C-alpha cells in the first residue's frame, strides 16, 4: 500500500513539474510529417495531432505556417513529435515536446491500440497518448516564460545621471577644432561578440537561427548557393567564414558593423 502511495505521489510531482514548464511556452509547432510516416500527414496523423493540442488549450501551428512572433523568437514555442514504438500486434505512440534548446521537457504516457486498420490504430493510440497532455491542464503563463525572463535583464532601467554641476574650469574648456576632410570614406566599426560567448546554431527552414545561452535569438541565417556563406535576415548583411573564423558584416542604424562570431553548429 505504501509503495502504491509513493508511486502516485512521485507521478504527481513529475506531472506538476511538467505542467509548470509547459505553461511557459505560447505555441506548439506541429511538423507536416512525422519520421515514422512515409508522406506528409499520412493517415491524417499530423492533422489529428494539431487538433488535439488545440482541444487542450494549446496554440498549435504547422511548421510551414509559423506566426511572425515564432519566427522572431522560436523559444516561445515547443516542437511536437510523435514517436512510434509499435510491434506486429500493437500500435504504440508517445507524444514528445521539445524546447528551442533541444531539451525534451514532456513525454506522454504510451497510447496503445490493437486495431488492424492503420488509420484507425494510429488515431486510437494517439488519442490515448493525449490523455497525458490533457492532464497537464495547460494554460500559458508569460510570467514563467524563458523569453520574458531573458528580456527582463536586457531591459533593466538605466542608471540615473549625476546631478553634480560641472565646475567653472570644466565649462571654460576650449572647444576642440575638428578638421574637415573632403569625401570621407566610411569605415566599418568592428564590434565584439554581442553575447560575450558562443552562439548556438539551430536549424530552421532554409537556414539556421543563432541563439545565446539565455536563450535569445541573435541572428537568423538563410542559406546561399555558396558554402560557408549566409544571408543575415533583417540585417542587410552576410555571414562568411574567413581563415577559419565566422565574420558577420551588416548594417545597424545606418552604420556598417563587422564582428567575429563564435558559432557552434
TrEMBL record:
N-terminal signal peptide: 1-18
Keywords: Signal
Residue span of region Disordered: 157-178
Biased composition (Low complexity): 157-170
Top-level taxon: Bacteria
UniProt name for this protein: DUF4468 domain-containing protein
Provenance organism: Sinomicrobium weinanense
